[in-house]
Amino acid sequence: MSAELIDGKAFSARIRGEVAAGVAQLKEQGITPGLAVVLVGEDPASEVYVRNKGIQTREAGMNSWEHKLPAETSQDALIAKVAELNADPLVHGILVQLPLPKHLDAEAVINAIEPAKDVDGFHILNVGLLGTGQKAMVPCTPLGCLMMLRDRLGDLSGLNAVVVGRSNIVGKPMAQLLLGESCTVTIAHSRTKDLAEICRRADILVAAVGRPRMIPGDWIKPGATVIDVGINRIAQDGRTRLVGDVDFDSAKEVAGAITPVPGGVGPMTIACLLANTLTACCRANGLPEPQGLTA
Fold first, then answer.
1. How far is CA 38 from the centre of its chain?
2. 1 falls in which pLDDT band (50, 70, 90)?
3. What span, in angstroms and rounded, lies between the C-alpha atoms of 35 and 97?
4. Is 97 a catalytic residue?
5. Overall average pLDDT of the 280-286 stretch
6. Is there a contact between 216 and 251 (Cβ–Cβ < 8 Å)?
7. Residue 75 known to be catalytic
8. Measured torsion, CA atoms of residues 180, 185, 190, 193, in degrees rounded to the nearest 10
9. Is 27 designated active site?
10. Cβ(90)–Cβ(63) under 8 Å?
């Protein structure tokens, strides 16, 4: 048996196409969704990520603004920039690129963003809304995972889901989304007792623990759907390569479907950022939300 590969590149291209179609419809009504990204400092990885976000935002037909601030920017100055974007009616989504320089309070900055424009879904109000099953802006990576699961499995109701990882960015919101789909959800982590046995019960296994190849194939229930969120750099054969939190080679012989690393969950993150920006624009204008692009 060899698992079906869940192709995140192809799926994200489809999502971006649906977003672009939604943007085109809004433009016919004189409305253009807009995303503003704030980058503080010159972290090379962040600069590449922000550049890619800008390219894909414009390709979808949206307005894109990049605000690059020096590394020594003060907390007050950064909060003031966020307030300026909150007040701009042309900006429907605001994203402050993380990580921030160490002298800045990331939580305070995130919570200064207008919740309706918080397309990362990190504001405490959006966290609370998601946790209580209300309409929220949903973090992009878990939203992408949910979209792939719906596409693969259809109705998720009643399935046993195990999320390995408890981060605020992926693990916890992923569990809330799966609860919203009427799954029976277990949140596990690196210190969970009998972790292997818990994983073996999962019809859906989401690995988001940040440890390379932590989950081997013999921890996986035959036929399970495995979503590997991990992106870990390891040294192998004298060079660096990316691997997930799941040992792909052994897992693919057991699972029914699995996301590869790279090329699985990763491409969905920016696609869902665009989807969230479109959703935020629709909500701001009192229009119906785009079908299939929200939780």
1. 18
2. low
3. 13
4. yes
5. 97
6. yes
7. no
8. 160
9. no
10. yes
The single residue of 53, 117, 172, 221 carrying the catalytic annotation is 53
Q: What is the pLDDT of residues 138-192, one digit of tens each?
A: 999 999 999 999 999 999 999 999 999 999 999 999 999 999 999 999 999 989 9
At 140, the amino acid letter reads C
Structure confidence by residue, pLDDT tens digits, 184-234: 999 999 899 999 999 999 999 999 999 999 999 999 999 999 999 999 888
Among the options 81, 117, 118, 120, which is catalytic?
120
Distance CA(50)–CA(54), nearest Å, equals 6
Owner of token pair 């590969």: 5
Catalytic residue among 56, 97, 118, 221: 97
The pLDDT of residue 47 is 92
pTM assigned to the model: 0.95
Chain segment 244-265, per-residue pLDDT in tens: 999 999 999 999 999 999 999 9
